[in-house]
Amino acid sequence: MPAEPVVVELFTAQGCAGCPEANARVEAVAAEPGVIALTYAVDYWDYLGWSDTFARPEFAQRQRDYRRALQIRNVSTPQVVIDGRRQAPATAEALQSAIDEEAARRVFPPEIEFRETGDRVGVGSGRAPRGGADVVAVFYTAGPQTVEIARGDNRGQKVRHMNVVSAVRVLGPWTGRAVLYPLPDADAPDQAVAVLVQSRADRSILNGAVRDGR
Questions:
Q1: What is the pLDDT of residues 117-155, one digit of tens each?
Q2: Which residues partner with 158 through β-bridges?
Q3: Distance between CA atoms of 193 and 213, rounded to whole angstroms?
Q4: Distances (CA, A) of 205 to 21, 138, 143, 191, 201
Q5: First to last CA, the chain
Q6: Rounded to an integer, what distance in angstroms lies between the CA atom of residue 148 and that of residue 155?
Q7: In this structure, is the dihedral angle defined by the CA atoms of residues 96, 101, 102 and 106, taken in order, positive or negative?
Q8: Which long-range contacts (CB under 8 A, 24 or more apart) does 79-83 make?
Q9: Is 1 within the bounds of a domain?
Q10: What is the rounded distance in angstroms from the CA atom of residue 199 to the CA atom of residue 72?
Q11: pTM for the full model?
Q12: Looking at the domain assignment, is residue 61 inside a domain?
């Protein structure tokens, strides 16, 4: 993966009729070598009759944080956020265009390096954003997962998801100096982890790196 990948975050729900198509679009771009694609399932559509099997309340909170930062009126699904800086329509052309534009924008981001021991990750020095940044570990199951939906708007469908997130943990602040952070254990030994350096103020992602599951 390139040293400066683009982070594509999809907010989706198993009970959302319009989400399976967006899931497929994000799965397609996840195969690109310069993309970190992450799927967050939200729970606010559960009242329609199907409780999302991947959803956690903190994922909806992450989406609300983006709503404030991007000055979007409401949260809804599907929503695709690129590098924490912009939302993009989940169409093939619009999504690819947004990824290409963000890839061309990156200038001297802080380097991220996983230690061979697997229990630490280093973030190099660089220019920190105003207000500082956090180093965030996003644990996920790499690859596709399919869930058969028994109730709600997608009843009877087998909905496919890519790189489903199970946990988001803040490792600590980053102020521009090189720092080595302890990396907590994943929920399962075969999970992958994406480490993101993310601005606190505007939620933009300065850089990201992935360690595959072990």
A1: 888 999 999 999 999 999 999 999 999 999 999 998 999
A2: 148
A3: 7
A4: 25, 13, 23, 22, 11
A5: 17
A6: 8
A7: positive
A8: 79/10, 79/11, 80/8, 80/9, 80/10, 80/11, 80/22, 80/25, 80/26, 81/8, 81/9, 81/11, 82/6, 82/7, 82/8, 82/9, 83/6, 83/7, 83/204, 83/205
A9: no
A10: 18
A11: 0.94
A12: yes
Q: Residue 196: left if φ>0, alpha if ψ -120 to 50, beta else—which one?
A: beta
The values of phi and psi at residue 139, to 5°, are -90, 135
In the predicted structure, residue 2 carries a pLDDT above the cut 60:
no
Domain membership of residue 131 (yes or no) is yes
In the chain, DSSP finds a helix count (H) and a strand count (E) of 3, 11
When pLDDT is cut at 50, 70 and 90, the band that residue 214 belongs to is low
pLDDT at residue 6, rounded to an integer: 96
Could you give the 3-state DSSP secondary structure of residue 69?
helix
In this structure, is residue 20 part of a structural domain? yes
CA-to-CA separations, 78 to 83, 119, 126, 156, in angstroms, rounded: 16, 34, 34, 20
What SS3 class is residue 73? coil
Domain tally, the chain:
1
What range does the domain containing 41 cover? 6-211
Tell me the residue type at 189: P
